[in-house]
Every structure is written in structure tokens, then in C-alpha cells.
């Protein structure tokens, strides 16, 4: 069985999987909003703020992989390409990964997800996460996905989350202003 054949999923499975993907988008947004709302409150313990950053980073990595990865485990990985009749369609549609997203993905690996020597010498700047930059970096791919996927293949939770005021504002403020 080829990789493309093993990527094919039935519509019911895709709809179920898209609900899980929608939760990742919700978590990413909620972590960013919560951190921004709490960061200047002296009553909030720094561990809580760090937990929000870590959760944001994990959800970012999951969404990044969903949108941009090629399958390492095609039977188990949920990827945007699986939501199209031909996975190659998504690979041709999706935008190039921005340098900003690549940098954040690399920082996540070196400073959050793994115990590395890069942590030993990290600067104060390495501790800062620009949530808006990450979410805006994901937006062009999200918009292309939503505008091109067959709606019967995704759960209404996913459409609801991606039309949430926060995402919708970012999606509508991208260079391409086609209707979401």
C-alpha cells in the first residue's frame, strides 16, 4: 500500500478527527487569550503563566504539523492533506512555511519540548512568545484549508472555532481577502 493510499480516510473518520483538530485551535487561542489577560496580574503565580505558554506551544506544534507535515505515520497522524480527495491538492494549495513559524517551531523544540543545552544559554528574549505572531503566521494556511476543504469532511466545531471572532479577524485581515 502506498503512502497516499494509507492516508485516505473515510468521511466519518475525517469528521471525528476534525473535532480533535478543532480542540487544538480552541486551546491555542484560549491559551494566548488567557496568558495575555493574566500576565500583568501580580496575584498570578509564574508557574500558571508558564503552563499557559507550554500548552500554547504544544497546541501550536500540533496545528503546525497538521497543516505542514507530511506523514511519518500515515495510519495515525491527522493531517490537513487527508481532508482532500488527493493529498497532493493540499500540498499544492498550502503556503510556504514562513521563517517566523520555522523559528518558533525550532524554539519550541530547543527551549520547551526537549531538555537541551540551548536552554542553558537562553536569553530573556528566548523566554518571550509572541502569540499574535504565531497565530498570524498560521492564518494563511488555515484560511486556505477552510476555503478549500469540502465542508462535509469537517465537524461543525471546527468551522465554529475558525469563525470565532479572534480567528475570523485574523483570517479577514490577511492579504487575500476572499470570503471565509
Write up what this structure looks like.
With about 180 residues, this protein is an all-alpha fold. The chain has one domain. Helices cover about 65% and strands about 0% of the residues. The chain is globular. The C terminus is likely disordered.
Question: Strand percentage, roughly?
Answer: under 5%
Helicity range: 55-70%
- The overall average pLDDT, rounded, is 83
Stretches with pLDDT under 50, minimum 5 residues: 171-180
Q: Helix segment count?
A: 9
How many strand units? 0
Shape from CA axes?
Answer: globular
* Rg of Cα set: 17 Å
Main structural class? mainly alpha
Summary, kept brief:
With 180 residues, this protein is mostly helical.
Please outline the helices and strands:
Elements: H1 3-7, H2 11-38, H3 46-68, H4 87-93, H5 99-113, H6 124-127, H7 131-148, H8 156-162, H9 165-172
Which short descriptors sum up this protein?
180 residues, 64% helix, mainly alpha, single chain, globular
Amino acid at each position: 500500500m502506498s503512502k497516499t493510499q494509507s492516508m485516505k480516510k473515510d468521511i466519518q473518520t475525517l469528521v471525528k478527527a476534525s473535532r480533535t483538530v478543532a480542540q487544538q485551535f480552541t486551546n491555542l487561542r484560549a491559551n494566548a487569550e488567557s496568558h495575555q489577560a493574566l500576565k500583568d496580574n501580580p496575584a498570578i503565580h509564574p508557574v500558571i503563566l508558564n503552563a499557559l505558554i507550554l500548552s500554547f506551544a504544544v497546541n501550536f506544534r500540533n496545528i503546525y504539523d497538521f497543516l505542514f507535515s507530511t506523514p511519518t505515520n500515515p495510519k495515525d497522524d491527522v493531517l490537513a492533506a487527508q481532508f482532500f480527495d488527493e493529498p497532493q491538492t493540499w500540498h499544492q494549495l498550502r503556503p510556504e512555511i514562513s521563517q517566523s513559524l520555522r523559528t518558533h517551531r525550532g524554539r519550541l523544540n530547543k527551549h520547551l519540548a526537549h531538555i537541551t543545552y540551548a536552554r542553558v544559554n537562553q536569553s530573556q528574549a528566548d523566554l518571550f512568545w509572541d502569540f499574535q505572531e504565531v497565530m498570524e503566521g498560521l492564518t494563511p494556511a488555515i484560511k486556505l484549508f477552510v476555503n478549500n476543504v469540502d465542508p462535509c469532511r469537517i465537524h461543525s466545531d471546527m468551522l465554529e472555532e475558525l469563525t470565532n471572532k479572534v480567528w475570523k479577524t485574523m483570517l479577514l485581515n490577511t492579504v487575500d481577502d476572499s470570503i471565509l
